[in-house]
Protein backbone atom coordinates (compact mmCIF):
# COMPACT_ATOMS: atom_id res chain seq x y z
CA UNK A 1 0.00 0.00 0.00
CA UNK A 2 1.46 3.28 -1.11
CA UNK A 3 0.90 7.00 -0.61
CA UNK A 4 0.05 9.50 -3.34
CA UNK A 5 3.64 10.40 -4.26
CA UNK A 6 4.65 6.75 -4.52
CA UNK A 7 1.64 5.98 -6.73
CA UNK A 8 2.42 8.91 -9.05
CA UNK A 9 6.07 7.80 -9.23
CA UNK A 10 4.86 4.30 -10.12
CA UNK A 11 2.71 5.73 -12.95
CA UNK A 12 5.67 7.72 -14.29
CA UNK A 13 7.74 4.52 -14.31
CA UNK A 14 5.07 2.72 -16.34
CA UNK A 15 3.68 0.59 -13.53
CA UNK A 16 0.07 -0.48 -13.10
CA UNK A 17 -1.70 0.91 -10.03
CA UNK A 18 -4.84 -0.09 -8.12
CA UNK A 19 -6.94 2.69 -6.62
CA UNK A 20 -10.39 3.23 -5.07
CA UNK A 21 -13.20 4.67 -7.22
CA UNK A 22 -16.86 5.48 -6.67
CA UNK A 23 -17.90 1.83 -6.34
CA UNK A 24 -14.96 -0.57 -6.70
CA UNK A 25 -11.19 -0.56 -6.89
CA UNK A 26 -9.86 0.22 -10.33
CA UNK A 27 -6.58 -0.60 -11.99
CA UNK A 28 -4.93 1.81 -14.33
CA UNK A 29 -1.80 3.20 -15.87
CA UNK A 30 -0.41 5.99 -18.04
CA UNK A 31 -2.55 6.09 -21.22
CA UNK A 32 0.44 7.33 -23.23
CA UNK A 33 2.79 4.47 -22.28
CA UNK A 34 2.33 1.48 -24.57
CA UNK A 35 4.28 -0.91 -22.34
CA UNK A 36 2.24 0.14 -19.30
CA UNK A 37 -0.95 -0.51 -21.28
CA UNK A 38 0.28 -3.96 -22.30
CA UNK A 39 1.15 -4.69 -18.65
CA UNK A 40 -2.34 -3.61 -17.56
CA UNK A 41 -4.02 -5.84 -20.14
CA UNK A 42 -1.80 -8.73 -19.03
CA UNK A 43 -2.62 -8.18 -15.33
CA UNK A 44 -6.34 -8.17 -16.13
CA UNK A 45 -6.16 -10.96 -18.72
CA UNK A 46 -8.19 -8.50 -20.82
CA UNK A 47 -8.38 -8.70 -24.62
CA UNK A 48 -6.82 -5.73 -26.48
CA UNK A 49 -10.01 -5.30 -28.52
CA UNK A 50 -12.13 -4.24 -25.54
CA UNK A 51 -10.45 -0.88 -24.96
CA UNK A 52 -10.16 1.01 -21.68
CA UNK A 53 -11.81 3.96 -19.97
CA UNK A 54 -9.90 7.14 -19.21
CA UNK A 55 -10.70 8.70 -15.84
CA UNK A 56 -9.71 12.30 -15.14
CA UNK A 57 -9.91 15.07 -12.57
CA UNK A 58 -11.25 17.56 -15.14
CA UNK A 59 -12.46 17.72 -18.72
CA UNK A 60 -9.31 19.71 -19.55
CA UNK A 61 -7.21 16.62 -18.79
CA UNK A 62 -9.20 14.68 -21.40
CA UNK A 63 -8.81 17.21 -24.24
CA UNK A 64 -5.60 15.64 -25.68
CA UNK A 65 -7.53 12.37 -26.19
CA UNK A 66 -11.05 13.40 -27.25
CA UNK A 67 -12.28 15.17 -30.38
CA UNK A 68 -15.04 17.49 -29.20
CA UNK A 69 -15.19 19.15 -32.63
CA UNK A 70 -17.19 16.14 -33.84
CA UNK A 71 -19.90 16.87 -31.25
CA UNK A 72 -22.52 19.59 -31.20
CA UNK A 73 -22.50 22.28 -28.53
CA UNK A 74 -25.60 20.65 -27.01
CA UNK A 75 -23.86 17.26 -26.81
CA UNK A 76 -20.79 18.80 -25.15
CA UNK A 77 -22.99 20.67 -22.67
CA UNK A 78 -24.84 17.44 -21.79
CA UNK A 79 -21.52 15.73 -21.08
CA UNK A 80 -20.24 18.62 -18.96
CA UNK A 81 -23.49 18.74 -16.97
CA UNK A 82 -23.01 15.10 -15.87
CA UNK A 83 -19.48 15.65 -14.53
CA UNK A 84 -17.89 15.22 -12.15
CA UNK A 85 -19.76 12.04 -11.46
CA UNK A 86 -20.33 8.37 -12.25
CA UNK A 87 -21.19 8.77 -15.95
CA UNK A 88 -18.81 7.46 -18.60
CA UNK A 89 -19.25 8.90 -22.09
CA UNK A 90 -18.33 7.33 -25.41
CA UNK A 91 -16.94 10.21 -27.48
CA UNK A 92 -14.94 10.71 -30.70
CA UNK A 93 -11.24 10.05 -30.18
CA UNK A 94 -8.21 11.96 -31.42
CA UNK A 95 -6.02 9.92 -33.77
CA UNK A 96 -2.99 10.50 -31.51
CA UNK A 97 -4.54 8.29 -28.80
CA UNK A 98 -2.85 4.89 -28.56
CA UNK A 99 -4.89 2.03 -30.08
CA UNK A 100 -4.50 -0.03 -26.88
CA UNK A 101 -6.69 2.57 -25.14
CA UNK A 102 -9.47 2.50 -27.74
CA UNK A 103 -9.34 -1.20 -28.59
CA UNK A 104 -11.34 -2.05 -31.71
CA UNK A 105 -13.35 1.18 -31.52
CA UNK A 106 -13.05 4.54 -33.29
CA UNK A 107 -14.22 6.24 -30.11
CA UNK A 108 -13.06 6.46 -26.50
CA UNK A 109 -14.75 6.00 -23.12
CA UNK A 110 -14.05 8.87 -20.69
CA UNK A 111 -15.17 10.04 -17.26
CA UNK A 112 -14.45 12.94 -14.92
CA UNK A 113 -14.52 11.47 -11.43
CA UNK A 114 -15.90 12.95 -8.24
CA UNK A 115 -13.88 10.51 -6.08
CA UNK A 116 -11.36 12.62 -4.12
CA UNK A 117 -8.52 10.09 -4.20
CA UNK A 118 -8.75 9.46 -7.95
CA UNK A 119 -8.89 13.22 -8.53
CA UNK A 120 -5.77 13.60 -6.38
CA UNK A 121 -3.94 10.95 -8.43
CA UNK A 122 -4.90 12.53 -11.76
CA UNK A 123 -4.04 16.04 -10.56
CA UNK A 124 -0.66 14.96 -9.17
CA UNK A 125 0.09 12.93 -12.33
CA UNK A 126 -1.06 15.82 -14.52
CA UNK A 127 -3.31 13.80 -16.79
CA UNK A 128 -5.94 11.05 -16.86
CA UNK A 129 -5.23 7.42 -16.13
CA UNK A 130 -6.84 4.34 -17.56
CA UNK A 131 -9.60 2.78 -15.52
CA UNK A 132 -10.93 -0.74 -15.46
CA UNK A 133 -12.18 -2.75 -12.51
CA UNK A 134 -9.54 -4.32 -10.27
CA UNK A 135 -10.20 -7.99 -10.78
CA UNK A 136 -9.13 -10.87 -12.92
CA UNK A 137 -11.49 -11.48 -15.82
CA UNK A 138 -14.42 -13.56 -14.61
CA UNK A 139 -14.05 -12.68 -10.92
CA UNK A 140 -15.99 -10.08 -8.93
CA UNK A 141 -14.47 -6.56 -8.82
CA UNK A 142 -12.51 -5.77 -5.66
CA UNK A 143 -14.01 -3.39 -3.08
CA UNK A 144 -11.12 -3.35 -0.57
CA UNK A 145 -7.33 -3.36 -0.44
CA UNK A 146 -7.46 -6.91 0.97
CA UNK A 147 -9.47 -8.11 -2.04
CA UNK A 148 -7.04 -6.40 -4.45
CA UNK A 149 -4.12 -8.08 -2.68
CA UNK A 150 -5.88 -11.46 -2.85
CA UNK A 151 -6.63 -11.23 -6.59
CA UNK A 152 -3.74 -9.14 -7.92
CA UNK A 153 -1.11 -9.21 -5.18
CA UNK A 154 1.39 -11.27 -7.16
CA UNK A 155 1.10 -9.17 -10.33
CA UNK A 156 3.27 -6.23 -9.24
CA UNK A 157 0.33 -3.81 -9.11
CA UNK A 158 1.06 -0.79 -6.87
CA UNK A 159 -1.91 -0.35 -4.51
CA UNK A 160 -3.08 3.10 -3.36
CA UNK A 161 -4.61 2.90 0.10
CA UNK A 162 -8.13 4.25 0.21
CA UNK A 163 -11.83 3.61 0.47
CA UNK A 164 -14.27 3.07 -2.36
CA UNK A 165 -17.35 5.26 -2.55
CA UNK A 166 -20.90 4.20 -1.79
CA UNK A 167 -21.99 3.19 -5.30
CA UNK A 168 -23.30 -0.34 -5.60
CA UNK A 169 -23.78 -0.18 -9.37
CA UNK A 170 -21.13 0.31 -12.06
CA UNK A 171 -20.92 3.71 -13.69
CA UNK A 172 -23.47 4.48 -16.36
CA UNK A 173 -22.15 4.46 -19.92
CA UNK A 174 -23.70 6.76 -22.54
CA UNK A 175 -22.98 7.45 -26.20
CA UNK A 176 -22.38 11.20 -26.67
CA UNK A 177 -23.47 11.25 -30.32
CA UNK A 178 -26.73 9.32 -29.96
CA UNK A 179 -27.53 10.02 -26.31
CA UNK A 180 -28.26 6.30 -25.85
CA UNK A 181 -27.52 4.66 -22.51
CA UNK A 182 -25.31 1.63 -23.16
CA UNK A 183 -25.10 0.50 -19.53
CA UNK A 184 -27.40 1.55 -16.71
CA UNK A 185 -25.66 2.94 -13.65
Overview in brief:
Belongs to the SUA5 family. TsaC subfamily. With 185 residues, this protein is α/β, with parallel strands linked by helices.
What does this structure look like?
With 185 residues, the protein is α/β, with parallel strands linked by helices. Helices cover 30% and strands 21% of the residues. It is built from seven helices and nine strands; from the N terminus they run αββαβααβαβαβαβββ. It has a nine-stranded mixed beta sheet, sandwiched between helices. β1 and β2 form a beta hairpin. α1 (4-12) packs across α6 (116-125). The chain is globular, with a radius of gyration of 15 Å. The mean pLDDT is 94. It is found in: Cytoplasm. InterPro entries: DHBP_synth_RibB-like_a/b_dom, Sua5-like_dom, TC-AMP_synthase, TC-AMP_synthase_SUA5. Its EC number is 2.7.7.87. It catalyses: L-threonine + hydrogencarbonate + ATP = L-threonylcarbamoyladenylate + diphosphate + H2O.
From the structure above, extract its key features.
tRNA binding, 185 residues, 9 strands, alpha/beta, globular, Threonylcarbamoyl-AMP synthase, TC-AMP_synthase_SUA5, nucleotidyltransferase
Strand order of the largest sheet: 7-1-2-6-3-5-4-8-9
Largest sheet entry: 9 strands, mixed
What would the CATH topology be?
DHBP synthase
Counted beta strands: 9
Q: What value does the average pLDDT take? A: 94
Q: Could you estimate the helical fraction of the residues in percent?
A: 25-40%
* CATH architecture classification: Alpha-Beta Complex
- Helices, by number, come to 7
Radius of gyration: 15 Å
Sum up the overall morphology in one term.
globular
Tell me the strand percentage band: 15-25%
The H-level CATH homologous superfamily, spelled out, is DHBP synthase
Number of domains: 1
User: CATH top level?
Assistant: Alpha Beta
Structural class: alpha/beta
Low-confidence stretches: none
Distance between the termini: 29 Å
Order of helices and strands: HEEHEHHEHEHEHEEE
Amino acid sequence: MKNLNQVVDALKLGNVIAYPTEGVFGVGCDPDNEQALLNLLDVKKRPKEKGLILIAASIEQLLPYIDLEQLTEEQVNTIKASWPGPVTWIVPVKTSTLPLVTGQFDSIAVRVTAHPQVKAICNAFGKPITSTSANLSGLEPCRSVAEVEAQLGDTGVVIFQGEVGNRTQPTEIRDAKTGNTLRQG
